[in-house]
Write a structure and sequence with these properties.
single chain; 478 residues; Rossmann fold; 9-stranded mixed β-sheet; 19 helices; 18 strands
Length: 478
């Protein structure tokens, strides 16, 4: 079974969010399960620097000019690199410049990703040809349209990591991208008179997946669908929409072997987790006290993540003697508000704007509670990392958060299934209530440790997801 993943980022080479964690782990897990899997990715500077040895596969004329396709290996995973420096060798993220402005030629930069995926399916590499393309998020969505325009040389799976990001571009680019004019239609990739790369994936893919079962149900509802509910309901009725829960790469996220920690631990050595907490408190200038509950946020600072609600309940955390550590970047207003709170309460609140992978590991190891009060959450990896590190997640009941965290209700505490704190309504009062319940349990150390151990023993390894995807591929290919 030859499978080609198409993606715009891949951990640890290049990461802006959870998409990179998935594409960095899922292909490797599938290879370990015996599949013949490779990736296609633009040769952004970070990618080129990591893959130092590669060979030329082909040089082709494309709508973006003559492009070289190279092939290299990264830790046992084969990577096709799209070598087009005029498109990809730029500062900033893969999607926008340092001023957060989207690059004006993004339609061309990411259409090329989809077009070359289709060319590989047509036999561009004479030594390897994929039978199935697995496209990730809007950046790769046009690959499904190119396959349809070229007689379906391979089957396709399109994974929605976040439906909110749709890849919308002006309709006049269609001819430039070498797609038939007939594709610009409601029964195609047209969306309110624009080209939608995301809709191309939804409409033309043989099967659609989301990154959690509940999110697959939620996106068929108007409040979660961003105008795509009709198409998604149709796909659901056709049996072409499935939710497959993301996993955790245990080679990277494992407190028993994590080189970023000052003290490694597992479910049977929770005393060492406390050492990480005391060390972080001292490093950040917080009051050093093991009995003081430490809450944490590792997140994009956006309203989607419900962090405006957290700002509303900060007085409750302070009054209860809790501490808060925040790591993230995002909306300027939220950033400023959190920074101001930290400046006003330096012994209780610490905020770092930006993202640091090693520091995020240390936060999970130190935290008692990790806050994920999202308005919607396709899967969420933060709560999975928190569970693994014995930092109890406090989440809203939505998407993958609902699929992975079991509330500390009396019934769940009694039967040993509790692993965190879950609230329903997207209001500050509901978040406050959940925080109060967490603080009540915190004052019962034995029960708290029991829940920690339950959380840490849950299995969210990538092997499960990898096998489910392989089974899906097999059904499509047969």
């Amino acid at each position: 079974m030859q499978v080609l993943h198409l993606c715009s980022e891949m951990f640890p080479l290049l990461k802006t969010g959870g998409l990179a964690d998935v594409t960095g782990a899922l292909p490797a897990a599938q290879i370990a399960a015996g599949a013949d899997v490779r990736l296609l990715i633009p040769a952004f500077p970070a990618i080129r620097q990591a893959v130092t040895e590669s060979e030329l596969v082909a040089e082709v004329d494309s709508f973006a000019g003559p492009v070289k396709l190279r092939y290299g290996d990264y830790h046992g995973v084969g990577l096709y690199l799209i070598d087009a420096p005029w498109l990809y060798d730029r500062p900033g993220s893969p999607y926008h410049d340092d001023a957060q402005c989207a690059y004006g030629d993004n339609h061309r930069r990411f259409a090329l990703l989809g077009w070359l995926g289709c060319e590989l399916a047509k036999g561009l590499d004479r030594y390897w040809r994929p039978a199935l393309l697995h496209a990730h998020d809007w950046h790769a969505g046009l690959s499904c349209a190119y396959l349809a325009a070229n007689g379906h040389p391979a089957r396709s799976v399109f994974t929605i990591h976040n439906l909110a990001y749709q890849g919308l571009f002006s309709a006049h680019h269609l001819a430039e991208l070498w797609l038939p004019n007939a594709f610009f239609d409601r029964e195609g990739l047209e969306f309110y008179q624009q080209i939608s790369f995301l809709k191309a994936g939804l409409y033309y893919a043989d099967h659609i997946t989301t990154v959690s079962p509940r999110y697959a149900q939620e996106i068929t509802l108007p409040q979660f669908s961003y105008g795509m509910e009709g198409l998604l309901q149709q796909r659901q009725h056709q049996g072409r929409l499935t939710g497959i829960l993301n996993g955790v790469d245990e080679k990277i996220w494992n407190p028993a072997h994590d080189a970023h920690l000052i003290a490694r631990y597992d479910a049977d050595r929770l005393a060492n987790k406390v050492k990480n907490k005391l060390h972080l408190q001292k490093t950040l200038g917080l009051q050093v006290e093991a009995k003081r509950p430490l809450f944490a946020v590792v997140s994009r600072l956006t309203s989607q993540k419900g962090l405006d609600l957290l700002l509303e309940v900060l007085p409750l955390l302070r009054e209860q003697g809790a501490q808060l550590v925040v790591l993230g970047t995002g909306d300027a207003g939220l950033q400023q508000a959190f920074v101001a709170a930290a400046a006003a309460h330096p012994g209780q609140i610490n905020v770092q704007i930006g993202y640091d992978e090693a520091y995020s590991h240390r936060i999970f190891a130190a935290a008692d509670v990790v806050l994920v009060p999202s308005r919607f959450e396709p899967c969420g990896l933060t709560q999975l990392y928190a569970l693994k590190y014995g930092a109890l997640p406090l989440v809203r009941r939505t998407g993958g958060l609902a699929d992975t965290v079991t509330d500390c209700s009396l019934e769940n505490l009694a039967d040993g299934s509790a692993s965190g704190f879950v609230f329903d309504d997207c209001h500050a009062a509901s978040l406050s209530s959940a925080i109060r319940r967490a603080l009540v349990l915190w004052r019962r150390p034995q029960q708290w440790r029991d829940v920690q151990r339950q959380a840490m023993r849950l299995d969210f390894g990538w092997q499960i997801a990898a096998q489910r995807y392989l089974s899906l591929y097999q059904r499509l290919l047969s």
